[in-house]
C-alpha cells in the first residue's frame, strides 16, 4: 500500500495509476486549491476524483483526502485514516510540489515554495514513520534543480519563488542522503528521483513559458517548446510522467531491496550539461 502526495494530477496521478496496476492500494492526497504566489492553477477536487477512478479501474482500493502538506497535523490525521482503512503502509511517495517561477513576486513566493517542496516532504515522511516496517520504501520526488547552486545556474530568472524552489530541492536531496543512513539499520529504504522537464501542468504554464522565453512579453507554448530541449542532453523537450513513475515503481519494489540513499536522475542527460565529471 502506498501514500502519494500531490496525487490529483500530473506525476502523482501517474504514480498512483502505475502502482495500482501492479497491485498496490493507494492513499491519494492533494490540496486541490490554488496558492496565491503560484500563478498557474493547481489541481481541483475533480482531478483527485479522476485519480480515484483510475486506481479503482485497476481493481485496487483508494482512500483520497483533500489535505495541505504544509499542515502536519491534518496530513498526519488523513494518513492515519487511510492506514486504518487498509491496515498497513509500505511505500511513501512525497510528490507534491509547486514552482512559483515568476520574477517580481514578493518574498512570500520563496516561503511558499519551501513550505510545499521541502516542509511538505518532511511532513509526509515524518507522519509516515510510525506506520513503516522493515522493507518499506520512501521516495522523494526532487528535481534536476537539486544539482544546481541556484535556479540562476539554468539561466532562468525565477524570482524569489524560483530561488525557493531550487533551495527546497537542494535541501530535500541532502535530507534524503542523511535520513537514508538513519533508516537503513531498520531495513527501511529512502531514495530521491530527480526529473528534468516533465510533461505536466507545471511545465505547460504561463510562468514557465516566460521563464524560457524572457524575450517575449506573453509567450505561448508554441514559443517556449522549441527552447525546452536545451535543458536536456538528449534531443527531447521533456520526459513523460510515466517515465518518472517507472523509476518510482522500481524503487518501491523488491527489485530495489538494497537500493537506498540514491539520487536517481531521470533527466535525459540534463545533469551532464551543467556539471563536469568529478571522480570524488
Task: Please describe what this structure looks like.
The structure is a single chain. With 280 residues, the protein is of the alpha/beta class. It has a single domain (2-198, 240-269), classed as Rossmann fold (3-Layer(aba) Sandwich). It is 41% helix and 12% strand. It has 9 helices and 7 strands, in the order βαβαβαβαβαβαααβα. The chain has helices at residues 10-21, 45-57, 72-86, 108-128, 159-183, 206-212, 221-224, 241-252, 270-274, and strands at 2-5, 26-30, 62-66, 91-94, 137-141, 189-195, 263-266. Strands 3-2-1-4-5-6-7 form a 7-stranded parallel beta sheet, with helices on both faces. β2, α2 and β3 form a beta-alpha-beta unit.
Relevant terms:
alpha/beta; 7-stranded parallel sheet; globular; Rossmann fold; 280 residues
List the helices and strands and how they pair.
Layout: E1 2-5, H1 10-21, E2 26-30, H2 45-57, E3 62-66, H3 72-86, E4 91-94, H4 108-128, E5 137-141, H5 159-183, E6 189-195, H6 206-212, H7 221-224, H8 241-252, E7 263-266, H9 270-274
Parallel strand pairs: 1-2, 1-4, 2-3, 4-5, 5-6, 6-7
Amino acid at each position: 500500500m502506498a501514500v502519494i502526495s500531490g496525487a490529483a494530477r500530473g506525476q502523482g496521478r501517474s504514480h498512483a495509476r502505475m502502482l495500482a496496476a501492479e497491485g498496490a492500494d493507494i492513499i491519494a492526497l492533494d490540496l486541490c486549491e490554488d496558492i496565491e504566489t503560484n500563478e498557474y492553477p493547481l489541481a481541483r477536487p475533480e482531478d483527485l476524483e479522476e485519480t480515484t477512478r483510475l486506481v479503482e479501474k485497476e481493481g485496487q482500493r483508494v482512500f483520497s483526502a483533500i489535505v495541505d502538506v504544509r499542515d502536519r497535523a491534518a496530513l498526519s490525521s488523513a494518513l492515519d485514516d487511510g492506514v486504518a482503512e487498509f491496515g498497513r503502509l509500505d511505500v511513501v511517495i512525497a510528490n507534491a510540489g509547486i514552482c512559483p517561477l515568476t520574477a517580481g513576486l514578493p518574498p512570500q513566493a520563496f516561503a511558499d515554495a519551501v513550505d510545499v517542496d521541502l516542509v511538505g516532504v518532511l511532513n509526509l515522511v515524518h507522519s509516515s514513520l510510525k506506520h513503516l516496517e522493515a522493507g518499506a520504501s520512501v521516495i522523494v520526488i526532487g528535481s534536476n534543480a537539486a544539482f544546481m547552486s541556484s535556479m540562476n545556474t539554468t539561466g532562468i530568472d525565477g524570482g524569489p519563488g524560483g530561488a525557493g524552489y531550487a533551495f527546497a530541492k537542494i535541501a530535500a536531496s541532502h535530507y534524503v542522503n542523511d535520513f537514508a543512513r538513519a533508516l537503513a539499520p531498520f531495513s527501511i529504504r529512502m531514495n530521491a528521483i530527480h526529473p528534468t522537464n516533465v510533461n505536466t501542468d507545471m511545465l505547460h504554464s504561463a510562468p514557465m513559458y516566460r521563464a524560457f522565453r524572457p524575450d517575449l512579453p506573453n509567450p505561448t507554448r508554441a514559443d517556449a517548446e522549441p527552447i525546452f530541449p536545451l535543458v536536456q542532453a538528449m534531443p527531447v523537450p521533456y520526459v513523460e510522467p510515466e517515465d518518472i513513475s517507472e523509476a518510482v515503481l522500481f524503487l518501491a519494489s523488491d527489485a530495489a531491496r538494497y537500493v537506498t540513499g540514491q539520487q536517481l536522475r531521470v533527466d535525459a542527460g540534463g545533469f551532464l550539461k551543467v556539471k563536469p565529471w568529478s571522480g570524488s
